[in-house]
Amino acid sequence: MNNSYSPQQLEQIIALGLRQQQDQQNFVSESELFDIAEQSGLDAKQTEAALKLWQQQQQQRRAQWKKLLAFKIYAGSYISISCMLFLIDWLTGGPWWFFWPMLGMGIGLFSHGLGFLKVWRKLAQPTQVAGLSFKRCRF
After folding, report:
1. Phi and psi of 111, rounded to 5°?
2. pLDDT at 131 over 80
3. Burial of 80: CB neighbours in 10 Å, binned 0-12, 13-18, 19+
4. CA distance linking residue 47 with residue 62, whole number of Å
5. Are 85 and 98 spatial neighbours (Cβ–Cβ below 8 Å)?
6. Which residues contact 70 (CB under 8 A, 6 or more apart)?
7. Which of 127, 125, 81, 121 is nearest to 104 (CA)?
8. Model confidence over 59-78: pLDDT tens digits?
9. pTM above threshold 0.70
10. Which tens digit of pLDDT belongs to each residue from 68-118?
């Protein structure tokens, strides 16, 4: 294996290795988490409650991002289908009709957006667990 590397490639390889090493050092095990929390004045029960709340928040955030992606896909479909319908209507001539399907799909997109905003606001509400106050989302 006689490979030679340019100074730029060498720099990239070393930087990647250092980043991986730093990432591995940044992780804390659950037992270390409980030790740190205990040193900060939290008992195991409060730490467990905070950990469960954090895990729930992570699940809610993942679900929220999935809903955002679904909304973006719906909006993209709405725009592309509307353009296609306009083009068909323009090429065929006659009375304009493309806005009727756009109106129906627009109502669906609007209601989808309202549902998305309702869930988003619910996630941003503060929560209290075991006497500790937590904000659900930090944006």
Report:
1. -65, -35
2. no
3. exposed
4. 23
5. yes
6. 112
7. 81
8. 988 988 888 898 899 999 99
9. no
10. 898 899 999 999 999 999 999 999 988 999 999 999 999 999 888 887 777
Q: Residue 38 belongs to what H/E stretch?
A: helix 30-39
Helix (H), strand (E) at residue 79 = helix 44-92
Residue 53: name the closest of 123, 1, 101, 116 by CA.
123
Q: Cα-flanking dihedrals φ and ψ of residue 105, to 5°?
A: -65, -35
Beta strand ranges found along the chain (DSSP E): 126-129, 132-135
Which tokens sit at 64?
Answer: 């929220």
Q: Which residue has the tokens 């083009």?
A: 87
